[in-house]
UniProtKB/TrEMBL annotation:
Residues 23-57 form a coiled coil. This is D-alanyl-D-alanine carboxypeptidase family protein. The keyword Hydrolase applies. GO terms for molecular function: carboxypeptidase activity. SUPFAM superfamilies: Hedgehog/DD-peptidase. InterPro entries: DD-CPase-like, VanY-like_core_dom, Zn_M74/Hedgehog-like. Pfam families: VanY. Residues 226-333 form the D-alanyl-D-alanine carboxypeptidase-like core domain. It comes from Nonomuraea guangzhouensis.
């Protein structure tokens, strides 16, 4: 079975056994995709840092190339000067004859010495020039290869990040479509609602207790109720399993509570509500149930005890006695055993 965007979701048989709503696998896929996207983005940032380091190396090579060319110019200069001097003081055939006969004057001897020096220096310059040319060619080739390698690597990682981002968006849209099909009113134009994106759960968690913006909350099937995205998705799955067992949806009297609502409940029901700003209701991670669940040891309550943890929901130990609240249930993604 595939989703609206061609991504795999739970088969009917698989759903009957673990998740009747078929949301869990989509949520896990969204979380996995988000992790892959995060890792790829980090790899891209690392590669960019490596490229910055490589660019420094490249700059060093180009500077070395300029220095090599400068040295070539310096080496060529004395040769040019000596050639000019030789032109001004040529050693002709007469000078050579005088040198061979032993009658050469001081000028002739100096010119001959200069000639010998030029020949020797020229040979040295040729060797040095050849070495420097090879060095400049090597530096130029390394610089070009380094720059091309950097550009190619960044382009490849950028494409991978973009592909993963598109895949993540498709999964979230598929998950949103599944929620809409189950009665969650998230958006009239079909875009993934921000508050129902499970990848935004951590963002919602960054707000103070009771001050989570409405746009960061995902509504339940029960009108007027909402929770944090991951809690809603898990609750919808739990609700569908409950509906399949009892033929009706779960009855919810309370879910997310703003700080003002927490203060109102605290003063109206002293001893049965957490101090304002400390309630899990204010984190979008708790519900109060009715329809039979609120009665301790009822069929509905026992069913919840036996099945809720499969979806990340549980009845906290304090609610059994201090104070006694059989209607209060909380969500913890760490105990979600539906894989």
């Amino acid at each position: 079975m595939t989703s609206l965007v061609g991504l795999p979701v739970a088969t009917p048989a698989h759903a009957d056994r673990r998740d009747p709503a078929g949301l869990t696998e989509l949520r896990k896929e969204a979380e996995k995709s988000a992790k892959e996207l995060e890792d790829a983005t980090k790899a891209l940032e690392k590669r960019r840092n490596d490229i910055a380091t490589s660019e420094k190396t490249l700059t060093g090579k180009l500077n070395a190339l300029q220095e090599a060319e400068r040295k070539l110019a310096v080496i060529r200069q004395p040769v040019s000067q000596m050639a000019e001097l030789l032109y001004e003081q040529p050693v002709g055939g007469d000078g050579v004859a005088q040198f061979l006969s032993g009658d050469a004057d001081a000028g002739t001897l100096r010119a001959m010495a200069d000639t010998a020096h030029i020949v020797a220096n020229r040979q040295q310059v040729v060797e040095q020039t050849s070495t420097l040319y090879k060095e400049t060619e090597r530096l130029a080739a390394e610089a070009q290869e380094l720059r091309a390698s950097n550009l190619l690597a960044e382009a490849q990682i950028a494409v991978e990040v973009d592909t993963l981002r598109q895949r993540s968006d498709k999964i979230v849209k598929s998950l949103t479509a599944a929620l809409v099909k189950l009665g969650i009113k998230v958006d009239k134009v079909g875009r993934a609602a921000l508050g129902c994106n499970p990848l935004r759960a951590a963002t919602a968690n960054s707000y103070p207790n009771g001050l989570i913006p409405k746009a960061m909350l995902c509504p339940l099937q029960q009108k007027g109720m909402s929770l944090r995205a991951d809690a809603t998705i898990a609750f919808v799955s739990l609700n569908e399993a409950y509906r399949k067992r009892f033929g009706k949806q779960m009855c919810v009297t309370d879910a997310y509570r703003s700080l003002a609502e927490q203060q109102s409940v605290y003063y109206r029901r002293p001893g049965f509500a957490a101090v304002p700003g400390r309630s899990n209701h204010g984190l979008g991670l708790a519900v109060d149930l009715c329809g039979g669940v609120e009665r301790f040891r009822s069929v509905e309550f026992v069913w919840m005890e036996n099945n809720s943890k499969k979806y990340g929901w549980f009845h906290p130990s304090w609610a059994y006695s201090s104070p006694f609240e059989p209607w209060h249930w909380e969500y913890d993604p760490k105990i979600d055993s539906v894989l």
